[in-house]
Write a structure and sequence with these properties.
With 258 residues, this protein is mainly alpha-helical. 54% of the residues lie in helices and 7% in strands.
């Protein structure tokens, strides 16, 4: 018998539907909420979304058969599609592989004004990327994740649409608020002191349904090591089989389509 206390996941519509079907609370997806919030922030900055689009266009062209073959001679990385809520890899790519991409004559590089704009925002993105990495740490307590989002809100209050504790994207604000022991510290993931005193969001207590996240055919693209593909695929297959064993194949299909 499998006992599920709650669901935790990073895809709002899919995991919320699963939580509703199972009649249990859902919390988490801090990374997902932060990705959505950063996307909103990018759209609010004049010219920044256009600069990101130019990087996405470059990555798309680098993924063609001819360009991909030429790029393989210069780097181990290849252009792959990414989810439309993933933002960090696009801006990283243009600085990490700009020299290699410039050696491909068939690729039209983004305008210098777009590159300069991306460079100006790099410190902000680096800070947010650091927060994102911290939120992805296995076993991160709920209070620490909430503390990180609160600190981000202090710097960017306009992101409250996604990051606020009572934001519409939150499945159960009350459950997420009280999901820690009384008197436990609210240190965020940037400060690891006394983390063991916080509520322990143990990975053994929750149900992960990451494989139910849909693949998006659009969005921009990034460069990712080829060797990670098989590892990710194997993990997704294993998680999918686990979900089927719990919910049944028909229910899983219903959730993925819903």
């Amino acid at each position: 018998m499998v006992l599920l206390n709650a669901l935790i996941g990073d895809n709002r519509s899919t995991n919320k539907a699963t939580a509703n079907l199972l009649g249990m609370n859902l919390f988490g997806w801090s990374c997902h909420k932060l990705n959505l919030a950063i996307g909103r922030l990018i759209e609010s900055q004049p010219g920044l979304a256009k600069a990101f689009d130019s990087v996405a266009n470059l990555a798309s062209k680098a993924n063609t058969l001819k360009s991909a073959a030429a790029l393989r001679e210069l780097t181990e990385l290849v252009a792959v599609c990414r989810n439309d809520t993933r933002w960090s890899s696009s801006y990283k790519m243009i600085f990490r592989d700009e020299m290699e991409l410039r050696q491909l004559p068939e690729l039209e590089m983004p305008r210098q004004s777009d590159l300069q704009l991306l460079r100006e925002f790099t410190p902000m993105f680096a800070k947010l990327d650091s927060d994102m990495i911290g939120l992805q740490k296995q076993g991160l307590p709920i209070a620490s994740a909430r503390g990180t989002l609160n600190e981000i809100l202090e710097d960017f209050p306009e992101l409250s649409h996604y990051l606020a504790q009572d934001a519409g994207i939150v499945h159960n604000p009350t459950f997420e608020t009280v999901g820690r022991t009384p008197g436990s510290p609210t240190k965020n993931c940037r400060s690891r002191k006394n983390r063991s005193e916080s509520f322990d969001a143990s990975y053994h207590s929750f149900c992960f349904v990451r494989t139910m996240t849909r693949r998006d055919g659009g969005g921009s693209q990034s460069l990712r090591p080829r060797r990670k593909r098989k590892k990710v695929a194997d993990r997704n297959v294993a998680a999918y089989k686990w979900a089927v064993s719990i919910l049944g194949e028909e229910k899983v299909k219903q959730i993925r389509q819903g």
